[in-house]
Amino acid sequence: MGFPDRPRAPQGGQKPKDPQADSSVSLLPHLEAKIRQTHSLAHLLTKYAEQLLQEYVQLQGDPFGLPSFSPPRLPVAGLSAPAPSHAGLPVHERLRLDAAALAALPPLLDVVRRRQAELNPRAQRLLRRLEDAARQARALGAAVEALLAALGAANRGPRAEPPTATASAASAAGVFPAKVLGLRVCGLYREWLSRTEGDLGQLLAGGPA
Amino acid sequence: MPAGRRGPAAQSARRPPPLLPLLLLCVLGAPQAGSGADTAVISPQDPTLLIGSSLLATCSVHGDPPGATAEGLYWTLNGRRLPPELSRVLNASTLALALANLNGSRQQSGDNLVCHARDGSILAGSCLYVGLPPEKPVNISCWSKNMKDLTCRWTPGAHGETFLHTNYSLKYKLRWYGQDNTCEEYHTVGPHSCHIPKDLALFTPYEIWVEATNRLGSARSDVLTLDILDVVRSPQKQPGYPHSTENTWPGHLPLGSPVTTDPPPDVHVSRVGGLEDQLSVRWVSPPALKDFLFQAKYQIRYRVEDSVDWKVVDDVSNQTSCRLAGLKPGTVYFVQVRCNPFGIYGSKKAGIWSEWSHPTAASTPRSERSGPGGGACEPRGGEPSSGPVRRELKQFLGWLKKHAYCSNLSFRLYDQWRAWMQKSHKTRNQDEGILPSGRRGTARGPAR
Description:
Chain A: It is found in: Secreted. Chain A: Keywords: Cytokine, Secreted. The complex is a heterodimer. Chain A has helices spanning about 20-60, 90-120, 125-150, 165-170, 175-205. Chain A is an all-alpha fold. The longest helix of chain A is centred in the N-terminal third of the chain and has 40 residues, at about 20-60. Chain B has helices at about 290, 385-405, 410-430; strands at about 40-45, 50, 55-60, 75, 80, 85-90, 95-100, 110-115, 120-130, 140-145, 150-155, 165-175, 180, 185, 195, 205-215, 215-220, 225, 270, 275-280, 295-305, 310-315, 320-325, 330-340, 360-365. The chains are: A mainly alpha, B mainly beta.
């Protein structure tokens, strides 16, 4: 499914070929406003994700907060980091991947929050940030999907169910692995938000088509 | 840190987290098929230890490709590399670590003990919980705002800091029957407090205590026994209230503590007809009196508008009006009333004076001369001549009523007579040409 044709300026009295061009023209400003709005939201949430990550590493204790800390990048079921090839994909394909990742993040963030509630029960701000992050990821993912639907680029195939918390849980055998996993999830959250912000920015620059 | 002999490693008091089905995550320490990376396992995993104890830990490498050895491995604790002399290669694939005289954990999520490969990459980790068992919580104090709820505070045990997350749970039960209940609303008035909002019984004692639990054990406070009725306080008197001055915190409230109420509402001050030296004060009993079924006595204080000296009228018994007398004519007065409940649910105990009501102002009528002292409510330390005269008159009237069958005699009648006297005095002055200063003028009037 492609994007609706952009209406061409009439040349020498030529009328636009797309019979729906008139209605598309009237929708464009609205779509553009929506894209702009979603982009702003992604930008804001990226900042929040940075703060979440900083607070998280602080509460796990060193070496988590040290610049030299380089834990293994554990694979997380149902969610991977943006691939290097992501940037080369068409923008609507990238946004589909962004939406899928944002849908997969909330249950993972919930698992991290539950574990942190055991490890750092007095860290109310961290727990609140994790709860907010799950909610915000859901909201941004829905906004991106709505944009894709408006652009006619929504995924027509069967929608992949986001992994449930039980299926993707990082209930590691020990506390240290759980800390590392939480760091991984918070890192992925930040990466995908940043990626979504970038992709929406590109969409904004290029227009809906 | 010198290497020591193996000390007792306390069993972790924490239960392992419940296993969640369909785990797909690769756990640190589990071999990653085809990854080509070495992985390892640290033992013990997440131990809990007493401060000052020792720990012997091992890092066992699972090599892929085979041949990975313990050579070159090293340990860090909270990001700091541990001295090599604390480590020992036990065998080809196992590096041991001996820590002695452990300090309390740096963070509540546990100290991070990590096993590294030669190149610095992380092979495995384990979190140490080093601390102290909780001590018995002390100084439990409870109060009720409205005889329906209960708020309690306590102090952690003597040393306070356990270096481990310590959970405090306030428990309560009816003394003679009933099951243990657990308070659910914590940190309402400070970090060690809990609020029970409802479903509390009156006239029957409760037993209240606090249980402290952490990974190394638990401790229980002494039991406090109280009746909700005996620990009622107005908001201003509750510990932690910003302007509370009448509490002796810390210290628990003994049984039988007195009660107070809000100040009387709707205080009105008005003139008494044309009487220039009197004002009438009326108020309403505090609504709480109705619920609590107790009586009240009142106190009134008043001052001249531009003065800071209050005069107090004491012992205004269980009535809701009073007349101030001996006032200056043509003067604005501020008046306040407060209440002291007593006889709650039939007891004879006096309560605590409430706060003063909001000041209410009124002015006395203007006059040529000031009125005589005395009135239904005598000012304390006021005009000395009016006080005793008024008191004696009251006694005389009381005697008359008893012995002379003058049932109609009352202060009201006396005041009416005074008002009449003043009027007739005015009229006489006008007839005789007496000026406001009291000097005689030239106007002719009937000779006396």
